[in-house]
């Protein structure tokens, strides 16, 4: 069976745009991930990573102002070639896995 986004992704909790930097940072450390999807009204609207968090002016900054919008993403059935192309096209090292408009997982480039 070929690797697809569904087989390569991790299930991670999403954060809302109102989440503060300190909370997102703690969650990323606890989960040992470098990115978190940002969800609003059950739709993935962005992706926040260590790079975006480094641009925060303080721990109370909110993720909605820092996250990458729209979220770089692929569908669950995307194959490894499409995932690699999307990572290059979006100049990123992580992708949200989106089924329709709903978040189903996260792929970080180091799993490939």
TrEMBL record:
SMART domains: CBS. Coiled coil: none annotated. The keyword Disulfide bond does not apply. Keywords: CBS domain. Pfam families: CBS (PF00571). The keyword Cytoplasm does not apply. It comes from the Bacteria. Residues 8-65 form the CBS domain. This is CBS domain-containing protein. It comes from Kutzneria kofuensis.
């Amino acid at each position: 069976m070929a690797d697809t986004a569904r087989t390569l992704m991790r299930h991670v909790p999403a954060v809302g745009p109102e989440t503060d930097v300190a909370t997102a940072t703690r969650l990323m450390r606890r989960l040992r991930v470098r990115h978190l999807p940002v969800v609003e009204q059950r739709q993935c609207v962005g992706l926040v990573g260590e790079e975006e968090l480094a641009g925060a002016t303080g721990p109370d900054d909110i993720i909605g102002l820092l996250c990458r919008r729209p979220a770089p993403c692929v569908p669950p059935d995307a194959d490894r070639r499409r995932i690699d192309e999307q990572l290059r096209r979006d100049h990123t090292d992580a992708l949200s896995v989106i089924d329709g408009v709903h978040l189903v997982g996260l792929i970080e480039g180091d799993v490939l």
